[in-house]
Amino acid sequence: MAEPLVVVIVGAGPRGTGILERLLANVGDLLPGTPLRVELVDPFPPGGGRVWRLEQSSLMWMNALAGNITMFTDESVTCDGPIRPGPSLSEWAAADGTHWDVLGMSFASRQVQSRYLSWVFDHLVAQRPEGVDVVVHATSATGLTEEPGGRQVVWLADRAEPLAADLVVLAMGHQEAEPTAEDVRMSAFAAQHGLRHLPSAYTADADLSGFRPGEKVVLRGFGAAFIDVMALLTEGRGGAYTTEAGRLRYLPCGREPVLHVGSRRGVPYRAKIAYRLVGRPAPLPRFFAAADLDRRFAGADRIDFHADLWPLMAKEIGWGYYHELFTAHPTRVMCGWDRFAAEYARLPWERIPDLVAETVPEAADRLDLAAIDQPLRGLTFPSLAELQPHLRAHIAADLRRRGEFIHSPDLGATRAILSVNRELRASSVTGKLSARSLVRDVHGWWQGFLEYYTSGPPAQRNRQLLALAEAGVVRFLGAGVWVEPDPERGVFRAGGTSAPGSVEATALVEARLPQGRSTDPLLHGLYERGEAVDDELADGDFRHSSGLLRVSEEDFRVIDGDGRAHPRRFAIGPFTTVRHFATFATPRTNAVSFRQNDTIARTALGILARTPHTKDLVS
């Protein structure tokens, strides 16, 4: 009997599980009658992997609604492989009967998501086709080499004998990054003066036990990582919330440090929207479609983000916003949608404010993208103490906008922003931007704005933040945050551009996800041998290395130092140059992750179909 062909997937979290699902779905069509073994390597339980493992605090929540998370393809997915439907997280929870609180418009804990992902993995394995085996190795992959003839060899942490494979897929998910020069500087200062410095890390893995009650801790970053640290250092230490007169209040336990937080923008990510559109969804894309962009700039060697792309992007966002305002809230505008839409389509973006001024009476109903992006720009407060009530009012106002359907145009803008991002990634026009603009404008500013507006925490988290601020446990540093060692005082000193003055702290937390080249030994080995390269962008006097593993845009194969795509090595996830990815798919949205997984699976199976399979395996 022929030995099976072997695929090794390094990483058994959601992405590895999704690729497994597509392999199992496609194998009957592309590799009929040939035995196959899929081996997954991950020290954490399959399904959830590291980030979504069961063994973490119940205070760690999902950042997406339970009804918006699925691991199964549906009729909306445009891929070559077969569609294999299955339950979303919400549907699974309803059928399971033990997670009644995880339905539809609710946010699950990461522990509940872990149980869903474990169920998905077990379900896939149980339903695997005849002739396919699935094996899990609960260990780390430490190296990837190649034998003469092209066989892939995956070295493991806990055994001398490696795995041999016909093909390898790297799906390790989020990675720890090499320390930056700033990390090294701050850590050295902390060690010298007996302070605490926590570099960028995944919160569930971070040791927060060393932060003392009442200690002043500076947190640099105001996104998801901050929210997790906030929860663990307050409620996670025994604090509690109560509701008084319809308002959330925090009851300190006395073990909390005092958290001083700031960022470049100076405000928290906007809370998740708690309502649905009132009117019909705007037809998107309208002014920013990938095919139109490619035709428009076909003859240009170089384009400018701010002059060429942003006016079209902004007009598309405005189209989504005003479509909802005019069609769902007609009493707040001076004309009908058809008339407004005709004028809106005719005018360039710089003339739109004039049209809006004539047709939208209330300033609060007008879309101001600059003010949304930088709500503290142009504001200076006499002191940090006087900044506090302004930030509390800002958070409260955002919670109202995100919780009351009268502000549903904000959801129209959100849908348009997501559409713009999809079309931007699908278009070839980013290749006509300078390297500097691609790094600063697209990967920097635009990605930051996208996450700030659309990827914020559940509203309850920002209510908790507001309650903590009112209790004095959280203090705001404002925009343009800076942190410097003070060798004379032996402390970290931090402040911002929103107010004069600074705070002295004995601990510093880099409250953001790690970025830069991975510390993973398997990837390091590939880099050192020239079998993989960082994504480097350069032109003129500008040079930037992202630290991301370069892969083929077409089928996600690993690119080597000579620019060649390896025929038997694939990689996908946040450690690669596949910048348009999502950890989880939303049902009935033709989710990109399903299409990516299907491409990898079908390409891999096509390669295996041309591979002789009568050989001895390294076991």
Multimeric state: single chain
- Range of helix content: 25-40%
Distance between the amino and carboxyl termini: 17 Å
Q: For the residues shown, what is the average pLDDT? A: 94
Number of alpha- plus pi-helical segments: 16
Tertiary shape: globular
Query: What CATH architecture of the largest domain do you see?
Result: 3-Layer(bba) Sandwich
Using only CA atoms, what is the Rg?
Answer: 26 Å
Structural class: alpha/beta
Low-confidence stretches: 614-619
Structure description:
It comes from Actinokineospora fastidiosa. The strands form 7 sheets. The protein has a 6-stranded mixed β-sheet with strand order 5-2-1-9-23-22, with helices on one face. A 5-stranded parallel β-sheet has the order 10-19-11-14-15. Helix content is 35%, strand content 18%. It has 16 helices and 23 strands. It has 3 domains: 5-176 and 516-609, FAD/NAD(P)-binding domain, CATH 3.50.50.60; 179-187 and 196-268, no CATH class; 290-454, no CATH class. With 619 residues, it is α/β, with parallel strands linked by helices. The model is unreliable at 614-619 (pLDDT under 50).
